[in-house]
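input
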Amino acid sequence: MAIKLEMLRTFRVVAEKGALSQAAAVLGRTPSAVSMTLAQLEANIGAPLFEGDRKNQLTLLGEMVLAEAIRATDVFQTSTDAIRRLTTSIAGTVRIAAVPSATAALLPQALAAFRQTHPGVRLEISDVDSASVRRRVRLEEADIGIVTGAIDDDTDGVAILRDKLGIAFSPRGKIAQAIADGAAPDWTLLGLEPLIGNPLCDLVPHPVVRDLVDSCNLEARNTTALIAFVREGLGATVLPDSLMLNRQDIGYLSPETPVARRELRMISNPERRLNPAAEQLWNALAKSRASGN
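output
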């Protein structure tokens, strides 16, 4: 008899629970049926997986087989979840993981337009940093990811927005005072206040900004938190034009020496085809791509 997935699933649950009765309750089977399945697996392997009959102590072989059972059952679960998402067709669920600035500046208008033509699609949005976006897409925890990076970094995905970066500062702080006194709009102004670090700072090609990043002791990745910190006078930070140009509660300027830009890119898992709903949203976002200044 060949090793079957159900055998591995049963073995995994028994090993994790440490008792036939508890495993049987989880599996919805009788203890005798669970015991029989384990016996079939051990007979197929040709060696015991447990020390004794109590099922609370694995043999050395059992520990190695458990690792493979976990891997096999997790892969199967991932595949069945993907199949269920595909079968929901156009009235399904689309999971988007995006960097916070995209969630705040790009997605509201894009999703409002999408919902007008696809009212039955459920949208699940999470805002995390670029590394977490990539991880979620890779692990199939998100269908579409939106990451930020340098201009012309065409290693993957589709560029959907390009815009300038600038300095966000408190209207009551030293930067605002310097501008009022006639200071030129330059990246060196960031040195007048503590820097609130975030990943966008790494995209500014100016030595002063690099030095400030190395020495800063306050960092945030959530856009709402960054704006709140600036508003409260904790320091200044780097944010994109698309998020800041219409704000009245904090100051903002985009230095021209040098111009700093960022690019939002849309990514998906190349090993999985998007479900119909996600594919239509992907196409809608790709068609609406725009370039910043």
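quick obs: The first strand starts at residue 93 and ends at 98.
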